[in-house]
Amino acid sequence: MLRCSSITCQSVTTLSHSRKLWFQSSLFPLNLRFSYFSNSPLSSKSVTLIKRNNRKTRMATFTTHASAQPLKNADELIDSVETFIFDCDGVIWKGDSLIEGVPETLDLLRSKGKRLVFVTNNSTKSRKQYGKKFETLGLDVSEEEIFASSFAAAAYLKSIDFPKDKKVYVIGEDGILKELELAGYQYLGGPEDGSKKIELKPGFLMEHDEDVGAVVVGFDRYFNYYKVQYGTLCIRENPGCLFIATNRDAVTHLTDAQEWAGGGSMVGALIGSTQREPLVVGKPSTFMMDYLADKFGIQKSQICMVGDRLDTDILFGQNGGCKTLLVLSGVTSLTTLQSPNNKIQPDFYTNKISDFLSLKAATV
């Protein structure tokens, strides 16, 4: 049994004594101590979790949903919620190409008074940079409506009062650096280390900064052996050093022509070298959902999560207690959804979000 009041979760059993004390201290809020360690898809069996709430322990049981239903009445779904959370890659765009019908769909939902939020596991850009991408694609989306996993990494550090005199080593791109800078944290690494090489020779000892208190790993097109070794040294040798992953996505959409190896491949390298599991702040971890619900004062039952991935988007919505809609415009095919091996079932599925424009009650 996993208990949130003490750090005995399997993913953190290898924490040093000092790190255990940190997480058990007031620096790490009680209501956050379970959510961010869980990153495994739910099995067909119920999973019982212990949650801490108002100093009382209560049981919460989560079960997989029944088989997904095709969306037939869009109006009914729209009217049943007040907020739509959209994934971006595979839902709003693929690569740098806007998916057909997206502008009209967003306009429809706004006209009905719905709050729109855009959540992406892609950490290569900051919220401001994503705002420019939305603008380039002709979409009117404010920075306050955008939540990237780069922002989630910085927000997570703030939520645990990560010491400002500690540094963050980044295996990732510019988006993480910009969000850490905005949050007031010192950092090193990032694209700058992409050209660094290690000259392996007898007796060579690689130095690392002992003030690094967290290693953040995200998608990184400049990934190399230097970064793997530097991050490994920080995690294994610096007392209490955190290992944070923006996401563990297997693949990503760098172009609209094919799928590319995702941030999970970079995270996997550090898992292999450190024999440690990371704290995941992106989907399907509940950190961003909890953050959004608190920021906007949203009841999770009044949210619909719309995404193209089962093990991130849909699980993210289910973990948060939201309605879920899978679109088939990205990674997941209908064959995959309906496979007997798939245990993650959304409430509804449809081809793309522009189906909201055509699936009216009168046509059912």
From TrEMBL:
Binding, Mg(2+): 87, 89, 308
Cofactors demanded by this protein: Mg(2+)
Primary localisation category: plastid
GO molecular function: metal ion binding; phosphoglycolate phosphatase activity
Any one GO biological process: photorespiration
Cofactor details (free text): Divalent metal ions. Mg(2+) is the most effective.
The protein's Enzyme Commission number: 3.1.3.18
UniProt entry keywords in alphabetical sequence: Acetylation, Chloroplast, Hydrolase, Magnesium, Metal-binding, Phosphoprotein, Photorespiration, Plastid, Transit peptide
Domain of life: Eukaryota
Protein family according to the UniProt entry: Belongs to the HAD-like hydrolase superfamily. CbbY/CbbZ/Gph/YieH family.
Protein role: Photorespiratory enzyme that dephosphorylates the 2-phosphoglycolate produced by the RuBisCO oxygenation reaction.
Protein name (record): phosphoglycolate phosphatase
Taxonomic lineage from the root: Eukaryota, Viridiplantae, Streptophyta, Embryophyta, Tracheophyta
